[in-house]
Amino acid sequence: MRFSRAFLPVLKESPADAQIVSHKLMLQAGLVRQTAAGIYAWLPLGFRVLQKIEQIVREEQDRAGAQEMLMPTLQSAELWRTSGRYDAYGPEMLRIKDRHDREMLYGPTNEEMITAIFRDEVKSYRELPRTLYHIQWKFRDEVRPRFGVMRGREFLMKDAYSFDLDEAGARQSYYTQMLAYLRTFQRMGIKAVPMKADSGPIGGDLSHEFIVLAPTGESEVFYDAAYDTFDWNQPDLRYGDEAGLQGLFDQVNSTYAATDETHDEARWGDVADDRKRTGRGIEVGHIFYFGDKYSESMGLKVSGSDGQMVTPMMGSYGVGVSRLVGAIIEASHDEAGIIWPEAVAPWKVGIVTMRADDEPTAAAAESLYADLQSAGIDVLYDDRNERGGVKLGTMDLIGLPWQVIVGPRGIANGVVELKNRATGEREELNVDAAMARLTA
Amino acid sequence: MRFSRAFLPVLKESPADAQIVSHKLMLQAGLVRQTAAGIYAWLPLGFRVLQKIEQIVREEQDRAGAQEMLMPTLQSAELWRTSGRYDAYGPEMLRIKDRHDREMLYGPTNEEMITAIFRDEVKSYRELPRTLYHIQWKFRDEVRPRFGVMRGREFLMKDAYSFDLDEAGARQSYYTQMLAYLRTFQRMGIKAVPMKADSGPIGGDLSHEFIVLAPTGESEVFYDAAYDTFDWNQPDLRYGDEAGLQGLFDQVNSTYAATDETHDEARWGDVADDRKRTGRGIEVGHIFYFGDKYSESMGLKVSGSDGQMVTPMMGSYGVGVSRLVGAIIEASHDEAGIIWPEAVAPWKVGIVTMRADDEPTAAAAESLYADLQSAGIDVLYDDRNERGGVKLGTMDLIGLPWQVIVGPRGIANGVVELKNRATGEREELNVDAAMARLTA
After folding, report:
1. Are residues A369 and A268 in the same domain?
2. What are the pLDDT digits (tens) for B380-392?
3. Residue limits of the Aminoacyl-transfer RNA synthetases class-II family profile domain (chains A, B) (predicted)?
4. Interface ipTM above 0.85
């Protein structure tokens, strides 16, 4: 993408009305614009990041055997009356009447709908287990929306739902999603620690939040340093390996991590002092086992292998896809701007010409741009006729992982400068070496 | 995907309550389920098709230089009051009040919002032309939703908006989108003919509908047989080539095609009799130039190269993404079920074992399944322990382009049967030859 033809509105000043750094940076770098309270339009830069995050979530769900579908945003009130939640849900539910005065709502979540769909199609134990998911916009009518996309009203969520014949099966589905989540966040280049969450009326140990560590986080967190080094992609841990998944769960459960809400001073005391880590964090995912709560209320039963009717046991698994954009920025930025992990960066490489009006400089940049594109690299080429310093500042602000700085003096010597946004390291290289480095 | 583990609910009987064939087939083959009047959940099979169509639309928009973003589903009434459309729009607009009694609406289209966003960011002629698009769910509160996703209430649409400094530029943007549309539909394997549409109060020749030919279509159509053979991917026609795009437009404008609404008997009389084609069709896209209608009412002005303020000229360009799923089925099916064009098929290949309980048959099918997957082919493996005839019927119903039929007798001789869904041709081949054919 050429900057001169792109729709990338960058603000000169940091907006004064945003309270947290991710919101400031998302406005300043032109990721989003607010169109109504707590409702945002995603401009091309923000949309690219949102789409990369969504695609990682999708691929890791597919890899874990979950099947994608898509439920609508609007739901009938009738459906929610069946579970009893229509009246129980507070004013955060956006209630709507259509032209025929039928009561509807903008879905804040989909337990009722997925359970009803599954109920109407699945009749036999042979058709279980199944985990279904979708990635769809939701609405929660927050009384005071704030912090940009971190607590907006219209937000993008991945929600998955598992259906099993018994609790043992449901535990395996839960472990499977736990592993999928650990891999999802690791792949995004962020540290998200699973923390035992309040499991509500059902009790038990099957409720975890995934918390991204960021100094500005909403919760205080306490965790074992072991989480700093876990690699969740160990090749000997496979989906479908029941003992392995149980082992993963036991490992997570026995390695301390908690938010202030579930913090247990006694267990914390057992963690060696040199392994104690504290900080703040932002919730980006929540997995939850709720047994037969919705299958019971929505009337989902299947015939078991012995001919008796069985009520399936369910869990739900949420990832805040749009929230992640903000959370990643909270976790990864500096005074100059955003620092995107490569996996979610809108473009991997930004090319900056220090003098767009210098013919050899522009020619070298053009040729590098063409070569990187041919090599399949996502590249933004800042070909604008602006001062070099302004363009470098913009590149730092929008946070692409690599900058290639092309200037008249360097080009006279056949070299460009390669800058790593995260470390700030700059290196002079000849053009071929820069290409080799960026396409390695 | 293994059928035995998939969520692919196929109905034995054709549903009696659906009036048109695409709706019947979408229910029977398990593409969608209605969750409220005119609102559908997309089950995995339908979602895969929807996503393939969406991706083709996206890639062809990108190729034409349009930039993707994403606007929210809910909009403020205030925005629509600025253009005057809040009061003008009828009961098809779903009007909503939030918890603070603020008036909102579920967007049926996005002219106001994109114009406001563009207005707030773009100040200079240097930042034009631009074409922006998004693919988002819309809502139109149809009084009698029917025909499944063809006239649903919540529907997925791609809408693009172009901004130019003058009408000459806007014409080029219009031609560019016209070519993108021709390429988009051609790539989906359907014939969509551009037909001059009523251009409303602005007049002029810049409004076209794209009509998929299908005997069950809503409109009567009249067109020149030349459209049966046009190839819109001719390599010498490039985006940015002004004369070439003008030539394309002239060619379309001089080759007769019209719906009953705009049919011109005099011009039709000039078409040679042996080139006259009539039939019925379904609208799947509409492109439209509206000049300064929204830039004027929303207050969008930029400074021109001479320092004077200029009101940009705009066009909008819609594709009915979810509607296309139904339209393609209307255009491509037989008594046995759907016949997917390969580009939008949920899977390219279906493997059917005629006897899942016969060990050599199952082993051969498993190995073919693994090999096709390794080769990157989308494949559905019907490994269910059902009668062969039932499984073949299901494959015909869901309409995958290729079926590989694996039976005990064939496997004893080292052969499988390859069936082309569209032509019905069946051929016995050894396994390697079948692989070679499917991965060619």
Report:
1. no
2. 999 999 999 999 9
3. 38-341
4. yes
pLDDT confidence bin for A200, thresholds 50/70/90: low
Judged against a pLDDT cut of 90, whether residue B205 lies above it is answered with: no
Domains in chain B, number: 2
Mean pLDDT of all residues belonging to chain B? 96
* Percentage of chain B lying above the pLDDT 90 cut: 94
Whether residue A277 is found in the same domain as residue A358: no
Task: Please name which of B222, B184, B217 lies closest in space to residue B283, comparing C-alpha atoms.
Answer: B217
How far from A195 is each of A226, A239, A255, A289, B346, CA to CA, in Å? 13, 21, 10, 15, 38
- Least confident range from A241-250, B201-210, B303-312: namely B201-210
- The answer to whether residue A291 is domain-embedded is yes
Whether the CB of A39 is below 8 Å from some CB of chain B: the reply is yes
* The pair of three-digit structure tokens given for residue A47, joined into one six-digit string: 């949309």
Please name the residues between 288 and 307 in chain A that touch chain B, using a CB distance below 8 Å.
none
Q: Is B15 on the interface with A (CB under 8 A)?
A: no
Nearest-Cα residue of chain B relative to residue A44: B69
From B337, B371, B396, the end of a domain falls on B337
Domain of B287: which CATH number? 3.30.930.10
Suggest the residue from B3, B31, B43 to mutate for an interface test with chain A (most A CBs closer than 10 A): B43
**Min Cα–Cα distance to chain A from B124, Å:** 12
Count CB neighbours of B167 within 10 A: 15
Collect all residues of chain A within an 8 Å Cβ-Cβ radius of residue B5: 65, 130
Q: Strand, helix or coil at B291? A: strand
pLDDT tens, position by position, B274-285:
999 999 999 999
Report if residue A76 sits inside a domain: no
Helix H or strand E encompassing B158: strand B154-164
Domain assignment present for B76: no
Residue showing tokens 């799947």: B284
Q: Looking at residue B216, what is its pLDDT?
A: 82
* Chain A, window 126-185: residues with a beta carbon less than 8 angstroms from a chain B beta carbon: 130, 132, 134, 137, 139, 141, 143, 153-154
Same domain, yes or no, for B206 and B311?
Answer: yes
Mean pLDDT over B97-101 rounds to: 97
* B324 and B380, same domain (yes or no): no
Angstroms from B69 CA to nearest CA on chain A: 5
Using CB atoms, which residue from B35, B102, B134 is nearest to A72?
B35
pLDDT of B200 strictly over 70: no
How many beta-carbon contacts under 8 Å exist across A and B? 145
pLDDT at B395 over 80: yes
pLDDT of residue B56: 98
Range A191-210 burial, b when 16+ CB lie within 10 A, else e:
bbbbbbbebeeeeeebbbbb
What pLDDT is attached to residue B203? 63
Q: How confident is the model at residue B202 (pLDDT cuts 50, 70, 90)?
A: low
Tell how far CA B154 is from the center of its chain. 15
The tens digit of pLDDT for each residue in A310-329 reads 999 999 999 999 999 999 99
Q: Could you tell me which chain A residue has the CA closest to the CA of B11?
A: A121
Residue numbers of B between 364 and 423 with CB closer than 8 Å to A:
none
d(CA A60, CA A82): 33
Of A337, A361, A376, the position where a domain reaches its end is A337
On whether both A377 and A296 belong to a single domain, the answer is no
Chain B from 51 to 110: CB within 8 A of any A CB: 65, 67-76, 79, 91-92, 94, 96, 98-99, 102, 104, 106
Model confidence over A275-285: pLDDT tens digits? 999 999 999 99
Tell me the CATH number at A399: 3.40.50.800
Query: A255 and A354 share a domain?
Result: no
Kindly state whether residue A103 falls inside one of the protein's structural domains. Answer: no
Q: Does A71 contact B7 at a Cβ distance shorter than 8 Å?
A: no
Domain membership of residue A421 as a residue range = 347-439
Would you state the structure tokens that stand for residue A201, as one six-digit string? 């009326």
Is the Cβ of A335 closer than 8 Å to some Cβ of chain B?
A: no
The answer on A154 and A239 residing in a single domain is yes
Residues of A in contact with B98 (CB under 8 A): 94, 141, 153
Residues A290 and A363 in one domain: no
